[in-house]
Specification:
260 residues; alpha/beta; Rossmann fold; 8 helices
Length: 260
């Protein structure tokens, strides 16, 4: 039985990192589903049309089914306000998708060697890739606990696999994704006690044509560089395919498991 078949009511979905790339594509595909009651789209400037043109277009098309929330996922004070804001409007959350991530921006760097490592870069990368997703889950726990089917799916990356690391480099990014995987696996154990119908997944979307990957696409074969809509479609397939029995696991876009 797929995730959508397990639902007993139309789904309330929250997408963090919704203004562009895979997050925006997820919002578009979810809103196209009749079994989705509402999509809560989080981004730093979700409600500013000049900064989030894609979300503005979806809002004009779908009206009150799309809820835009200005939230900085790296600011825990803002995350702490989420559940109190949502609870008066929805009784429970059925699907939580987190697409936030950074590879090279500001202090965060795609280091090629140890000499390029510094504390500021490590902290900046971990703050976005590992800390933001798990703190988002922490603060939305009141809407996930219970006995209703719910899935939490966060974008990880194959390069976060320790067993698969044969090339080295990208110290901060690799380590932050490995940390994210451990945090999600640990959270899956706790959440299974708080909601036996819960599923927590770490998902690798493949190399997707987004701002994160563009500086590093030169050597990527065209057939292996995905459009955001394709990646979103494949990620939702993984959400549909995996249930509580697979909670705490790590999957690629094509349904293949990834070693830790």
């Amino acid at each position: 039985m797929s995730y959508w078949q397990r639902l007993e009511e139309p789904a309330q979905v929250l997408v963090c990192g919704a203004s562009r790339g895979i997050g925006l594509a997820l919002c578009e595909q979810l809103l196209a589903r009749a079994d989705v009651a509402g999509v809560w789209a989080l981004a730093r400037q979700a409600r500013q049309a000049s900064q989030s043109e894609g979300l503005a277009a979806l809002a004009r098309q779908h009206g009150q089914r799309l809820h835009l929330l200005d939230v900085d996922a790296t600011d825990e004070a803002q995350l702490a306000e989420l559940a109190p804001r949502l609870k008066p409007r929805i009784a429970r959350l059925h699907l939580l998708l987190c697409t936030v991530g950074v590879l090279q921006h500001g202090a965060a760097k795609a280091e090629k060697g140890l000499a390029q490592l510094d504390l500021a870069g490590l902290q900046a990368t971990f703050r976005v890739n590992a800390f933001a997703p798990i703190l988002l889950l922490k603060h939305l726990l009141p809407l996930l606990r219970g006995r209703h089917p719910c899935t939490v799916a966060t974008l990880s990356a194959r390069v976060g696999s320790i067993g698969d690391n044969r090339l080295g480099g990208w110290y901060s990014y690799r380590a932050s994704k490995a940390a994210l995987n451990q945090l999600l696996h640990t959270a899956s154990i706790e959440l299974s006690r708080l909601n036996p119908q819960s599923t927590v997944l770490a998902l690798h979307p493949g190399t997707t044509d987004t701002e994160l990957s563009r500086p590093f696409q030169a050597n990527v074969p065209a057939a292996q560089l995905f459009h955001a809509s394709f990646a979103a479609e494949r990620l939702l397939e993984q959400v549909a395919r995996h249930g509580p029995e697979q909670s705490g696991s790590f999957w690629a876009w094509d349904g293949q498991p990834i070693e830790w």
